[in-house]
Amino acid sequence: MPWIKILHIASLLCWCAALLYLPAMLWVSARVRETTSFEMPAPELLRFVFTHIATPFALLAIMSGTLLFIVAQLIGGWLVLKLAAVSGMVLCHVLCGAMIVRLERDKRRFLVPASALTAALAATLMLAVLVLVLSKPFD
């Protein structure tokens, strides 16, 4: 079981890092309209990070967390709240994907405030998950 926890924590760290990186990169990309010849275009880089880094780590974190839940037979009120916070993180992940599509279509309206709001929401949910897992209230 320790290897499942290690896998879960490692994949969660990578997913959370991507959830903070994507809105920040979206915010910058929505403000800048031109690229230099030395840079990779932002939408292509964002799509690569989203599809090849963030999504696989999100799936791995969710699958390893589910496996950990089943193997350790975890039950408690804190778990319901944690799963609600993780569902919110999944929603932030989906919002990042939708904003990447908007950026690719050059529809930049409201992308700056939406990316800032998504980053703030994702960070708050990450903090909530951390507090719930470490304190285990309602146990």
UniProtKB/TrEMBL annotation:
Taxonomic lineage from the root: Bacteria, Pseudomonadati, Pseudomonadota, Gammaproteobacteria, Oceanospirillales
Descriptive protein name: Protoporphyrinogen IX oxidase
Cofactor(s) recorded in Swiss-Prot or TrEMBL: heme b
Short name of any one Pfam family annotated for the protein: UPF0093
Recorded topology in the membrane: Multi-pass membrane protein
Subcellular locations according to the entry: Cell membrane
Species this chain originates from: Billgrantia kenyensis
Recorded GO MF terms: metal ion binding; protoporphyrinogen oxidase activity
Family: Belongs to the HemJ family.
GO biological process, one term: protoporphyrinogen IX biosynthetic process
Pathway the protein contributes to: Porphyrin-containing compound metabolism; protoporphyrin-IX biosynthesis; protoporphyrin-IX from protoporphyrinogen-IX: step 1/1
Residue stretches spanning the membrane: 6-28, 49-72, 78-103, 110-134
E.C. designation(s): 1.3.99.-
Reactions accelerated catalytically: protoporphyrinogen IX + 3 A = protoporphyrin IX + 3 AH2
